[in-house]
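Re: duplicated header lines in exported structure tokens

Our pipeline writes sequence and tokens for each protein into one text file. With two proteins the header for the second block appears twice in some exports. Here is an export where it did not happen, for reference. First protein block:
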Amino acid sequence: MNIISLSESDCFVLLGKEKERTATTLLAVFIASLLSVSYGFVLHFPHPLTLGNEKWYTAGHISLVIGASIGSVFAGIFIDKLGRRSTILMTSIIYLLGYVLLIFGCPEIQNNENFPIFFTVFGCIYCGIGVGMTSLVVPVYIAEVSSARLRGVMGAITNHAIVFGIFLYSLTAEISNWNVKYYYSVLLGLVITLLSLLMIFMPETPRWLLANDQRDKALKNQLWLLGVKSDAEDTCNYIETNLAHEQIASVNDFCSPVLFRPLIIGSLLFLIHQLTLIGYIIYLSHFLKRFKHLYITLTCFLLQLIFSLAGCFIVKRFFRRYILLFGSTTLLLCSIGFAISSDLNKKLSELRVAYLIIYAIIFITTWGSLPWIIVSEIFPPRARGLLGGIVRSFIWLFYIPTEMIFLKLVSINGSLWFTACISLLSILFIYYIVPETKKLTLEEIDQHYLIYRRF
């Protein structure tokens, strides 16, 4: 049955392949992904708050994570009530408010390194709310404005924008002088957020408009996204037919496989993604701290761009589950191999650098991008906001504990074995539970959970 669905979807994709245009969809995705750049920028941002004082880093970091958990819940409500585009614009304004508060608390303005903790905490909370909202609304918006043919490539842009934001902050911190880099970093984040307000000129997703009885506007937006030669009318009819069988999600529905399975799958996917992301940031921070040279940062930045392009090709070329299985298997073998080598020769620093390079490649091309794509696809339309908000809020609450555990393991050289265990469990999880979503429309994925009652 699954093979039949895939072949039918292939026929549909091939039929519209030459009729659909990609430029306008890419423009909408690019504008929305500016929030993901802010996401990566803010995620690595509290580090300047140390400035020789550990309490500022702790306050900023905890405030950021708490705000992200709250923002995920807000986004789950707003994307269903107000729409995807309106929520993106609201997120941009929240980022702006957070950066303004951080600027007022900037030590260069206050002329005092012990700058007011009020501005720091509330600035990080508002930026954290923006991070939490971004983690939900941007992948959903990209998934809904993209066709089945484009959704994999467009969805991969989310992770690459996040990594770009992390490197952009690292680059700013390296170029700027230590005494003024905090101020410059805040201003750069403010500029990125201002650019995201260009979302005003982008369309709302046709699926949300159809769900809210705005068919004429939905058809107009679908034509704008995919062109006048695309099958916009048939696509809208197909979406409407699927929505007609939908109903508002209730608490009792969480006991049904239609909502329960996507919730479990999405939570575990993002948990593994978060563990790999934390490892990526920690390893990268140690690497840049050890080799603190501008050309090292620039080299990492250029390599990230190359791997990002390769990741888009990989997502388009291969099935999602195969990519994740390859990534987990590679991390498993490399982690075990490097752990054994490190135990034999603890002073061999070249091994750590080699492992970082492999880890970064695997993260950027597999576990960095695929969870964003799959989770934005598997949730049914009636509960996309509700389930997405629950999953991301739950995961954000575990960010600081998992980071502390990883830092502790790094200090005792146990992070390699920890990564190996996570990779082994993820292989079993992907092979037996995670569904394949490549080349399927969002409606076909929704029907998958209605037809198949087991994992």
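Second protein block, exported in the same file:
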Amino acid sequence: MASPQKKLQGLVAATITPMTENGEINFSVIGQYVDYLVKEQGVKNIFVNGTTGEGLSLSISERRLVAEEWVTRGKNKLDQVVIHVGALSLKESQELAQHAAEIGADGIAVIAPFFLKPWTKDVLINFLKEVAAAAPALPFYYYHIPALTGVKIRAEELLNGIQDKIPTFQGLKFSDTDLLDFGQCVDQNRQQQFAFLFGVDEQLLSALVMGATGAVGSTYNYLGKKTNQMLEAFERKDFSLALNYQFCIQRFINFVVKLENFSELKVSKSQGLLL
């Protein structure tokens, strides 16, 4: 896997946690899953145990085992494996962060605790700082997803001076539709080499215009190839073609949203039907 100094960029698939019909983790398909992402979708970075992977619904021991399996199966195949280690308990989050370092992950990410919510930027920073300190050699990413956490502290505000408090801070997974906030994150931190990873797949082209350096999302599990084509068109400044790709991706997402049954995707993945 990549050295921790390598910047996380491009597409990052937020991995689904495959399950058996009995609700047990189906570890047996993860090796195939890695090959599918690399060979079929052209995606070589992953984000494990996040929202798509239902990390907060898994036990701590399950999260550890899932992380271990992805790191093991991804060795010499994936560029970067980032493990989401956020939890309501600081001690559990620290335990997961330390474990991620021990197994050779390439980075860790943390959401804001969302039951007893941090009420100021400083309170949130202190929580993140304590988690990051448990894995002092790993790049640290803040996972901003206010629609699910209910924590409305703006990412722009949080990033102001964050490396002074968290030296390992490397970037942001921004899963929100507030492009004003996202744009200001980029604009106010141009001197930094932060990774600005956008997390709303259907709006990625807008975020690229704003300065996104990459993207983390669930659709890159199966629309990675199409999204990579959009990224390539954008790099070539063929904005008309890039927009066509974005509209194509939106049509697919719109279809899935209308189905109102994302579990179908998980069942298919768990049974190996998409592999």
